[in-house]
Amino acid sequence: MSVFRDDFLWGGACAANQFEGAWDVDGKGPSIPDLCTNGTHTTPKLLTPTIEPDKFYPSHEAIDFYHHYEEDIALFAEMGFKTFRTSINWTRIFPTGEESEPNEAGLAFYDRVFDCCKKHGIEPLVTISHYELPYALVEKYNGWADRKLVDFYMNYCKAIFARYQGKVKYWLTFNEINAGMMPFGGVLSLGTCKGYRGPAVAMPDDPQTRLQALHHQFIASALAVKYAHDHYPEYKMGNMDCFITSYPYTCDPADILANQQAMRKTNWYCSDVQVRGEYPAYAKRLWEEMGVTIHMEPGDAEILKNGTVDFYTFSYYMSNCITTHDDATKTEGNVAQGFKNPYLKASDWGWQIDPQGLRYSLNEIYDRYRIPVMVVENGLGARDTLEADGTVHDSYRIDYLRAHIEQMAEAVKDGVDLMGYTPWGCIDLVSASTGEMAKRYGFIYVKKYDDGTGDLSRLRKDSFYWYKKVIASNGADLT
User: Fold this and answer.
1) Computed from CA positions of residues 373, 283, 338, 208, in that sequence, does the dihedral angle turn out positive or negative?
2) Which Gene3D superfamilies would you find in this protein's record (predicted)?
3) CATH number of the domain at 9-472, out of 3.20.20.330, 3.20.20.80, 3.60.15.10, 3.40.50.300?
4) How far apart are CA 173 and CA 237, in angstroms?
5) pLDDT score recorded for residue 20
6) Nearest Cα to 64, choosing from 329, 448, 468?
7) pLDDT at residue number 329
8) Do 322 and 247 contact (CB within 8 A), yes or no?
């Protein structure tokens, strides 16, 4: 018997820049990912201020959802999706970000996508900004370092809120906004990379610019939430964090404190602002220790307090260990590095697999905020083998997802108000961290490869049929 609520939102998640393709079609302008080359696990993808003909830019075609959306959404419906988390590519609507009027062709594309979802009984869950900042705003303003971006973002929000009334109910203001707490966020999340050329996830750090830019995103998010609540009361507005669960590596009190500080900085700093409407008590000391002074304009505190979200969403892939000791081994991970946990196995990309950490995270989040929670990214990036008969036997992915859904059920029994689950990359797409196609997450295999070849045909993996059964049983049948 299922423990999940009857209206539980089972589905999957993608991002426009990682699967749409058609990067310059129908008036679309270039976004940051359109200027990022491909990479590998050992070779970083690069940000190039201009398109260079000798380099491959995977977002330019990706898996071409732009021309395959009807086929793909039909496959999602075949699995039984109740919701589909996707994003709107800002530069389809405002190619440079500064236009006063939106691009009609871009608006019309998302009309078709959302209408197709509705036809199949799928509720869209839309991320407004998912690492798709117009590159023109990087060049002119250094991205979110300039407060003028708040106005550009609000112009964008007002256009899409008005256009998709009756088609979209659930909105997320920024994807993994807490990426801005880490140097990685300076490129994809904040766009504070004017004049930078190099690895797209390893630019030189500038904490002052980074945290000031993040403050501007907080203001933009709060204003968007307040505007939606005032003008479209049926809209439900959420945040989205990359939740990096961490544990003390030892029982040394120094490790306990170091882990508490890591959880505060990585996870709670941003969500406290978006859910509670104010910076946490420890922010002042954090700023002092980082050498940061946040400039706030009159009224900012009121804006943050009046723009709190209705529900909390997050990505969860792995956990880390935190230590003050020198004898621990570092491990790879999503956004943030930590230390290896001897009790956990890891994926092919070094991400530690920790299903029980999801239950722990859900309880920590819900205990802190007491608003509905949704897991909007979770999954296993792996090297899939396409057999000669067109099958993909991805039992490892099924095992990963099963273990995490089991722990979600335990969290529900613990009392967590869990509203939905959308595993990441429900159809294969370009990896955000490395720019690869080889790192596959989906239930649907796409014949597209790291060198740009492939006929883009779609094939159902074993996990496709398994997830269909999970949804049909509302999470009761995980066999």
Assistant:
1) positive
2) Glycosidases (3.20.20.80)
3) 3.20.20.80
4) 7
5) 98
6) 448
7) 76
8) yes
- Return the domain boundaries, the chain: 9-472
The amino acid that residue 227 corresponds to is Y
Place of tokens 């956004």: 335
| Residue 150: partners with Cβ closer than 8 Å, 6 or more residues away | 216, 219, 220, 223
Phi-psi map region of 131: left, alpha, beta (phi>0 left; psi -120 to 50 alpha)? left
d(CA 75, CA 398): 18
pLDDT number for residue 335: 54
Nearest to 139 by CA among 35, 239, 238: 35
- Mark the ranges of the chain whose per-residue pLDDT is less than 50: none
> What is the rounded distance in angstroms from the CA atom of residue 135 to the CA atom of residue 146?
14
Closest CA to 181 of 265, 280, 279: 265
End-to-end CA distance of the chain: 14
Q: What is the C-alpha separation between 235 and 258, in angstroms, rounded? A: 39
Catalytic residue numbers, as ranges: 176, 377
Under 8 Å CB-to-CB from 35, ≥6 apart: which residues? Answer: 47, 48, 49, 50, 51, 57, 135
Q: Which H helix or E strand runs over 306?
A: helix 300-306
Q: Is 462 helix (H, G, I), strand (E, B) or coil?
A: helix
Instruction: Give the whole-angstrom CA distance, residue 351 versus residue 332.
Output: 6
Q: Which residues pair with 460 in a beta bridge?
A: 444
One-letter amino acid at 38 equals N
The 3-class secondary structure across 23-80, one letter per residue, is CCCCCCCCEHHHHECCCCCCCCCEECCCCCCCCCCHHHCCCCHHHHHHHHHHHHHHHC
Q: How many CB atoms lie within 10 A of CB 51?
A: 14
